[in-house]
Each structure stands twice: as structure tokens, then as C-alpha cells.
Q: What sequence folds into this?
């Protein structure tokens, strides 16, 4: 569906993507560059990348992460990015060169978020962030009656895995910080018409709503943040769009139909289908979100 008919002076054009590019650079960089070119042609006002800029089987090298940061900077629009599990959490896997996940997390924070007060992209916008508490990747931005929030919530059960005391401690601290950031951000945006939240993790796989029960059956690492989102959205009472990735299935759903039906969730395409989604946001409308796929010219 084309979104052009619905645009007006108060609408906002957002593009979302994530879980890409995966694999050998000579194979995956050309289609990723083609997609970036298509996105730049659309002239969005903001781009959101929900993380996993590399495959979980790719080595977790400085060079690869630096290459992906360069791609984030190549978008003409401002870019918000929230880390995925493949950039750090999964760097312990045996099928890649073993790297300490917490060391990789420290590198991402110091290299990607050394200046968290501004966005990525060729056009910069000013951001608020949680850097004073050690989480500069948690950011927010307001414009045109819309509030944008990023929160560091990743796949692989949000790093709540029995690999050692350090990573469990990391999980509890970051989960609490992200939940606090979410509450503070919803409060800061209470006067706005729409809130958009971007995380990496698919919190809703594994039959989240089985038999109508809103609970995390096999994802205890999302329990605190997910329930915080549900409560904050319920209190906010206006449209909320959650953008996420992780499972590589482009779907649109209402994850909390009983408790927070104002939350609409959209998962981006992934590496198998290297496309993006354009979202026209129309503040003040009962149904303010209109979605359109941006097809990759090298993968149609």
C-alpha cells in the first residue's frame, strides 16, 4: 500500500530495519548498500536499526563492528540504533572465534556511543540518553508530537543465561536500567500523541499468548521489561508502536490485547529478506501507523 496519499504537515516518515547484513561481506554488503540507497531515496525523517548488524556466526571483530557503524553513518536521515545479541551476547558461541561478550559490550558502548547526545546518520539530531548511569545506548528523541525511545533488550533471553556470575549480574543491572528508562521516558512523553519504542529482542516468540495468557513462557529474561512496558503503555493510554527484530519474520501484532491493547508491535524483515519497512505516523489519528515495504532492488 502506498503511504503518499496520507501524508500531511503533521505526519512523520520513519524507516525501520534490522538483523542485517549477515554473512561474507562480498556477498551481503552489495544488497545492503542497495537497500540503504533505496531508503535514502525515500527521504525519511528518521531511520531505526534494531540491531544484529552481523550474523551470530560471524566473528566479533572490531573491524566488522566498525564497518557496520560506517553503514549506519551512511544514511542521509538521522539514525537510532539499539544493539542486538549478535554484536555481543552471542560472541561466546563455539562456531565463531570465542570473544568475551562483556568485553564486546564495553567496546560497543565506547566506540558506538562515545557521543550519545547525537544520532548516527549524515543528519544529526539531539538525543537524551542514560549515559550518566552507564547505559548510553538507551536514548530518546521527540518531534512532531511523537516520542522515540530505544532500550537495550536483546535476544538470547536478554543475556540471562547460566554462563557465569558476571553475565547474570550484567543482565539484572541492564534490565533494571532499561525498565527505569522506559518508565522515565513514558513520563517525559506523556503529553505527546504517539510513542515509538525500539528494542532488538522478539519477546513474543515461543507462544507468548498461548491460550490468551500474556506471559513469557520460555523467556524469563524479558519478564521485567515486558511487564514494565505493558504497565507504562496502559497508563499512557495513547498509541504505542513497538519495533523489534530477532526472529526474522515481518509481522504486525497486538501483543497485549487484554491489558494494553494500545500497543501495536512490528517485527522488521531480517537477513533472509533484506528489505525495510516505511512507517507513516499520523499523530492524533485513532490508527496512526501506515506500513509499506521498501523492497531491496537486488532481492525482489
A:
Amino acid at each position: 500500500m502506498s503511504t503518499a496519499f496520507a501524508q500531511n504537515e503533521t505526519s512523520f516518515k520513519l524507516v525501520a530495519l534490522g538483523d542485517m547484513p549477515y554473512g561474507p561481506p562480498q556477498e551481503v554488503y552489495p544488497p545492503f548498500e542497495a537497500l540503504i540507497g533505496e531508503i535514502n531515496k525515500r527521504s525519511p525523517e528518521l531511520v531505526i536499526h534494531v540491531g544484529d548488524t552481523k550474523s551470530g556466526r560471524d566473528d566479533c571483530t572490531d573491524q566488522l563492528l566498525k564497518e557496520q557503524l560506517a553503514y549506519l553513518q551512511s544514511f542521509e536521515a538521522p539514525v537510532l540504533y539499539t544493539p542486538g545479541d549478535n554484536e555481543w551476547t552471542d560472541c561466546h558461541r563455539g562456531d565463531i572465534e570465542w570473544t568475551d561478550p562483556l568485553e564486546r559490550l564495553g567496546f560497543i558502548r565506547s566506540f558506538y556511543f562515545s557521543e550519545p547526545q547525537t544520532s548516527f546518520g549524515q543528519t544529526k539530531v539531539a538525543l537524551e540518553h542514560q549515559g550518566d548511569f552507564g547505559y548510553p545506548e538507551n536514548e530518546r528523541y521527540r518531534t512532531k508530537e511523537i516520542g522515540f525511545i530505544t532500550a537495550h533488550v536483546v535476544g538470547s533471553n536478554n543475556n540471562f543465561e547460566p554462563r557465569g556470575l558476571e553475565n547474570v549480574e550484567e543482565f539484572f543491572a541492564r534490565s533494571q536500567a532499561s525498565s527505569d528508562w522506559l518508565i522515565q521516558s513514558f513520563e517525559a512523553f506523556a503529553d505527546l500523541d504517539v510513542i515509538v519504542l525500539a528494542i532488538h529482542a522478539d519477546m513474543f516468540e515461543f507462544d507468548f499468548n498461548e491460550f490468551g495468557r500474556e506471559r513469557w513462557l520460555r523467556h524469563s529474561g524479558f519478564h521485567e521489561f515486558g511487564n514494565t512496558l505493558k504497565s507504562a503503555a496502559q497508563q499512557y493510554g495513547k498509541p504505542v508502536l513497538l519495533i523489534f527484530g530477532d526472529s526474522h519474520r515481518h509481522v504486525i501484532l497486538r501483543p497485549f490485547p487484554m491489558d494494553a491493547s494500545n500497543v501495536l508491535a512490528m517485527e522488521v524483515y531480517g537477513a533472509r529478506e533484506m528489505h525495510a519497512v516505511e512507517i507513516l505516523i499520523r499523530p492524533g489519528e485513532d490508527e496512526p501507523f501506515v506500513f509499506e515495504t521498501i523492497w531491496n532492488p537486488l532481492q525482489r
